[in-house]
Structure to design on (382 residues):
């Protein structure tokens, strides 16, 4: 064969080979992109596979590479969204678990404190030198004050009271005299008020209950606030009730006008100034008005366990009438607690009250804590 024809044939053949090689080289990126796309689809949630697909398909033209690139990008975005959502849920679950553990720890601490308080109460009661009857007053929120009452009862405002215990009755003479015997309380058989003349002081002191054999079960009167506090502390570490606690016990969550309910005070519910009180005053040269025409049986104080019809639903007696009661609270404006003077709040009314409004659960009065009157006593709380 002629050399020229061989060269010509080689040239043609070489051209075909080179052309075939060139075509294979041009198709390789498309094939790589296609395979990477398939691998990513198979891997589903594998971000690295989707990322590899993007790298293989970027810059590749033709053969559906652009479509595959978009799918891989969308798949990677979806995978990252899913990962972010899983991370969010995991963090939320971890936070919920932290909250659960914190609440469990708080509840355990509350339980521990409750058990410790219960044990302390058992110890206190075992150590108490005297047995006093208490009534549990479940805590709650109520409307304190009255828009129908005196200016110092306004404005009506929400007040919160935690569960506490209040003595069922006023402290009796017999109970107070036990404290005197223990040398923890001061004997009180006279009144104390700078406004009394010597004659007035002598007259009123005759109605102090302590030292009278027939008055052992009557309320201890003629005591100052400090005397009341000393007794409560001696009697098992108790205290005087706050003004808010006292009103809550007298009125309840429903805001009763009187401890027993809405019915006006009468001779069956409250020891106030009825016919017997007016008669007593007349015998002593005084003219007093009367609350009602009934006769409650007691010209001055009555036994602390009397008048059951006047009890609160919880069974607390004499929160209206018999004797006013010291509280632990200073006399302040509502609701700012701004105290304009050094006075202590007293509550409840007494045996010679002739005005029904003074016997309401919301009515407030005040005295200097050092004063002692025949119509002023107390009860303890804890």
């Amino acid at each position: 064969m002629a050399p020229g024809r061989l060269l010509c044939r080689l040239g043609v053949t070489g051209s075909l080979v080179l052309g075939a090689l060139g075509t294979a080289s041009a198709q390789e990126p498309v094939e790589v992109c296609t395979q990477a796309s398939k691998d990513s689809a198979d891997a589903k949630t594998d971000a690295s596979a989707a990322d590899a697909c993007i790298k293989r398909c970027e810059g590749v033209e033709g053969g559906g590479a652009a479509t595959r690139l978009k799918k891989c990008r969308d798949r990677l975005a979806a995978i990252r969204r899913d990962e972010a959502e899983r991370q969010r849920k995991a963090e939320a679950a971890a936070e919920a678990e932290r909250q659960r553990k914190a609440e469990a720890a708080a509840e355990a601490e509350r339980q521990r404190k409750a058990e410790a308080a219960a044990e302390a109460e058992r110890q206190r009661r075992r150590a108490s030198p005297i047995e006093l009857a208490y009534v549990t007053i479940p805590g709650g929120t109520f409307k304190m004050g009255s828009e129908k009452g005196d200016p110092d009862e306004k404005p009506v405002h929400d007040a919160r009271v935690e569960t506490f215990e209040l003595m069922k009755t006023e402290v009796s003479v017999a109970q107070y005299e036990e404290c005197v015997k223990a040398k923890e309380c001061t004997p009180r058989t006279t009144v104390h008020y700078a406004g009394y003349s010597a004659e007035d002081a002598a007259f009123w002191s005759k109605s102090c209950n302590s030292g009278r054999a027939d008055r052992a079960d009557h309320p201890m009167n003629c005591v100052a606030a400090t005397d009341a506090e000393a007794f409560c502390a001696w009697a098992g570490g108790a205290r005087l009730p706050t003004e808010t606690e006292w009103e809550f016990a007298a009125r309840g969550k429903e805001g009763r006008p009187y401890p027993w309910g809405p019915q006006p005070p009468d001779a069956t519910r409250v020891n106030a100034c009825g016919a017997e009180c007016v008669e007593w005053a007349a015998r002593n040269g005084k003219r007093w008005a009367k609350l009602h025409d009934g006769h409650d049986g007691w010209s001055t104080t009555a036994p602390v366990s009397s008048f059951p019809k006047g009890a609160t639903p919880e069974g607390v007696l004499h929160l209206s009438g018999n004797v006013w009661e010291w509280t632990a609270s200073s006399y302040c404006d509502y609701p700012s607690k701004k105290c304009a003077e050094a006075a202590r709040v007293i509550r409840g009314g007494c045996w010679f009250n002739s005005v029904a409004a003074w016997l309401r659960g919301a009515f407030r009065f005040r005295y200097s804590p050092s004063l002692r009157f025949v119509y002023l006593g107390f009860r303890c709380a804890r």
